[in-house]
Amino acid sequence: MANSKLFTIAGTSTLNGVDTFRFATGKIKVRENKLAKTGHTNIALQELPEPMTKAEAVSFLQGQGINAVLPRGRGAAVKQEQTPEQIAAAEKTAKSAAFAKRMAEARAAKAAARQAAEDAAFFAAQAGDTAGAAALLAAADEHGVEAERELAIAEGAVEG
Questions:
Q1: Domain span holding position 58
Q2: What is the mean pLDDT of each run of 10 residues along the chain (160 residues)?
Q3: What pTM, to 2 d.p., does this model score?
Q4: What are phi and psi of 15, to 5 degrees?
Q5: One domain for residues 88 and 37
Q6: Which residues, including other chains, have CB under 8 Å from residue 7's CB and lie 6 or more apart?
Q7: CB burial class (10 A; 0-12, 13-18, 19+) of residue 91?
């Protein structure tokens, strides 16, 4: 997803001898105080003429002859805008990963259910209830076939 957060304040500050671009929303004084409390000096913030992304704000400040480095940490660096194709590919990849995770969870649940049914059938047989054991195993097999069909439908291997 493209970095589309908009800022109304931009400028620079110096921390550890490095001039860095700063971005904010709200009131300049609040942001200046926060920066000063954390050791920043040479704080020079200004209202932007309109809300801008970080990339737009950097271009605006550089157009005024203000140069600094981009901030580091907490994902604060200016991110390159993505094309619609890149966004679609990223969304498709995320959906595929989520689907693969759900499928793995479903397969694990199916295996656990089958094991529980086999255990229940074993204990029923130990108790002398062979008919009950056979019924439990038959139900587990029937449920297993049903679960396999649901997985195949979800994977698109067969139609619902």
A1: 7-63
A2: 78 89 92 92 94 90 87 54 75 85 83 78 75 71 62 58
A3: 0.44
A4: -135, 125
A5: no
A6: 23, 24, 25, 48, 51, 52, 53, 54, 57
A7: exposed
